Amino acid sequence: MAEADKDRTGGRALAEPAPHLAALSEKARDYARNARSENTQKAYDADWRQFASWLRRQGLDPLPPDPQTVGLYLAACVEGGPGRPPLSVSSLERRLSGICWRYRQLGFPLDTADPHIATVLAGIRRAHARPPAQKEAIYADELLAMLAVLDNDLRGLRDKAILAIGFAGGLRRSEIVGLDCSSDQTEDGTGWIEIVGADQNGGGLLLTLNGKTGWREVEIGRGSSPLTCPVAILETWLSLGRITRGPVFRPLVRKNGGVSAERLSDKHVARLVQKTALAAGLRGDLPEGERRRAFSGHSLRAGLASSAQIEEGHVQRHLGHASAEMTRRYQRKRDRFKVNLTKAAGL
Q1: Local structure of 217: helix, strand or coil
Q2: Residue 32 burial by CB count (10 A; 0-12/13-18/19+): exposed, middle or buried?
């Protein structure tokens, strides 16, 4: 029997994988899972579930991928149906990205340049595309009003630090909650903080972040008042919360009011911005439902980008924008009608 096994394997007996290779295999799977952010991975998983469910209802198999079937699915999504509101073009494009990603993982790349997909998607864009809906930017005076509605207890101090650091750093909500007290402290951290002494131009906070466009450093200087200074507020939160290692921003334990060891969810940032913006009376001219939809975690980042009166390249690096065009988008909104070509032309 052993001889037969050797013959079928080219003269080598079958063996279990070496322990170190099994460990490397598991580590490789971990790296593959970390290739995309947790939120992106969740969205892609949901995209595939929706697609697979539609295929089952049509009596179709997911493998091998069929561009014509995918084109039909795109058309079905944008048309909607009973209990299924139509998808926007941006949501549809994201769903197609999720489907393509899953097919690549299965070893069956989907060719999105195939006419059955590309032509259908081009027609959908032409018929249904709309300008992207932008969240309201929060400016410095509005941020101060939002800080004022929060209490000075432990929860309030944490939330003040989130708002102040998020605005001054122009951070994405995932970057805010991904901060650790120092480098290499947690596996799920996406950056860390360093408090710099006053001997370096007054000092402040240095953030090292691994964002969408790679690693970058963000400097947050000290403010003019300890009540509104992002660095001072953060120092108070860390001191009273007795946080010296691990995640900077954490939930509070309901049982005793202490600080949990877990990392705060990025959803908390969005809810916090909405809640405090409403409480501070921002955009009071809008109905409450529209006001709630007008603000999100991105409003802090948009506020800094829109109001920063400094060199464009510095703003781009600070925010981690992939292109200068993205930075100019905010500045164009800030500078609307500053140059009046109608008057300049003599009208």
Answers
A1: strand
A2: exposed
Other C-beta atoms closer than 10 Å to the C-beta of 135 total: 18
pLDDT, position 68: 94
The CATH number given to whatever domain includes residue 219 is: 1.10.443.10
User: 128, 159, 175: which is the final residue of a domain?
Assistant: 128
CATH of the domain at 64: 1.10.150.130
Q: 7 pLDDT exceeds 50?
A: no
Helix crossing, 154-169 with 230-240: angle to 10°? 140
- How many CB atoms are closer than 10 A to CB 60? 13
Q: Residue 41 sits in which domain range?
A: 32-128
Extract the tokens encoding 261: 């060891």
CB 135 within 8 A of CB 271: no
Tally of domains in the chain: 2
Tell me, yes or no, whether 121 and 146 share the same domain. no
Asked if 190 and 210 touch (Cβ cutoff 8 Å), the reply is: yes
Q: Does residue 47 surpass a pLDDT of 80?
A: yes
Mean pLDDT of the region 272-280: 93
Element (H, E) at 196: strand 191-196
Lowest model confidence (mean pLDDT) among 16-30, 105-119, 159-173, 179-193: 16-30
Tens digits of residue pLDDT in 115-131: 999 999 999 999 988 77
Cα 337 to Cα 189: distance, rounded to the nearest angstrom: 42
* 279 shares a domain with 187: yes
Contact by Cβ (8 Å): 131, 258 = no
How many Cα atoms sit within 13 Å of 293 on the Cβ side?
7
pLDDT tens figures, 207-255: 999 877 788 899 999 988 888 899 999 999 999 999 999 999 999 988 7
Residue 4 lies in a domain: no
